[in-house]
Amino acid sequence: MRIKIASVGEPVLRDAARPLRPEEIGTGRIRELIEHMRETLADAPGVGLAAPQVGESLQLAIIEDKAEYQATVAAGELAERERSPVPFHVLINPEIELLSPPEVSFFEGCLSLPGFVAMVPRARHVRVRALNETGQPVQIDAEGWYARILQHEIDHLHGTLYIDRMWHRSFSSIDQHSRHWKSRSTAELVTHFRPK
């Protein structure tokens, strides 16, 4: 079963999602939702998906940054973004703590706003406390791109999209980004787009 990804403008993306109750975690309904979200994420493809993006206003997100997604990315770009593979995992009722200021900016996109990207400042280092799919508590200390993915997905659970945090002058279609901005250094992009 394929699940349609909610697109920007749909109310579910702007509402704060409700926490899952302990008795809901591990039920057939939630297990099925997680599996459908995983299939949807792989089909997209993407590195993270929050339940509101599939029309469910629940504090549940999945993350997986596969090595195959990074195979075509230059080594220098991977190093600059501090990006490495992240195995599949589930976050339920996550709480995030920024352990550094939101001062690392890269272009970012979203499955709910396909075809566009923008520079978004994020914290380089975060700590997340959540429950996994069996209801067990987990703590994640993440840096670099993984920290960015966590911030992006947890924002979805609070009705926030990357366009709320982006540097507005950097907003671009993917085609124009590839044509004009992709080959430029991050330092040049920051100088060009950082709000004055």
From TrEMBL:
The keyword Transit peptide does not apply. Fe cation binds at C110, H152, H156. It catalyses: N-terminal N-formyl-L-methionyl-[peptide] + H2O = N-terminal L-methionyl-[peptide] + formate. Keywords: Hydrolase, Iron, Metal-binding, Protein biosynthesis. Pfam families: Pep_deformylase (PF01327). Its cofactor is Fe(2+). Its EC number is 3.5.1.88. One of its GO terms (molecular function) is metal ion binding. The active site is at E153. InterPro entries: Peptide_deformylase, Peptide_deformylase_sf. This is Peptide deformylase.
